[in-house]
Amino acid sequence: MMSFIIRTVINAVALLVIANVSGGQIQVKDFGSAIIAAIVLGLANAVVKPILYFIAKSLTCALSCITLGLWSLVLSWLINGLLFYAVGQLVNGFVVKSFGAALWGALALSVVNALATVLTRQDEDKKE
After folding, report:
1. Which stretches of 22-94 are DSSP H helices?
2. Which of 20, 57, 66, 67 has the most CB atoms at less than 10 Å from its CB?
3. pLDDT in tens, 1-57
């Protein structure tokens, strides 16, 4: 539970940084809005993303074979961008003005989330 809280706070701070670097394409009102957006993004990635990924993957299996799996990375990036954009429409105080901004914001947040996962897993490994 503690790693979830740490990762949520890290993602919220990352959303604030991404908003400041985006040149106004992504806007976050305050830290509370960033926390809510981070929680909603986490839930969307846990629940909605696997469903969308399964549907899209089954429809584009041949493309994935032709590109030797690189299409899976692009597909995952597109789905993350779609979820990022959708959360921008749902959460008050978190605005994503374009799908292109959502794609770049999702990519930056994915990198931060991967680093946060590595950091929180190292803490869990030390406890055992």
Report:
1. 31-59, 61-66, 70-90
2. 57
3. 777 888 889 999 999 999 999 888 999 999 999 999 999 998 888 888 888 888 887
CA neighbours within 13 Å on the CB side: how many for 29?
Answer: 11
Establish if 83 belongs to a structural domain.
Answer: yes
Q: Which domain holds residue 110?
A: 2-114
Whether 122 is in a domain gets the answer no
Report which of 94, 72, 71 is spatially closest to residue 84, judged by C-alpha positions.
94
- Count: domains in the chain: 1
The verdict on residue 84 lying in a domain is: yes
Asked if the structure places residue 73 within a domain, the reply is yes
- Report how far residue 74's alpha carbon sits from residue 96's, in angstroms, rounded to the nearest whole number: 20
d(CA 125, CA 102): 34
Q: How far is CA 87 from CA 72, 121, 123, in A?
A: 22, 27, 30
- State how far the Cα of 96 lies from the Cα of 86, in Å rounded to an integer: 9
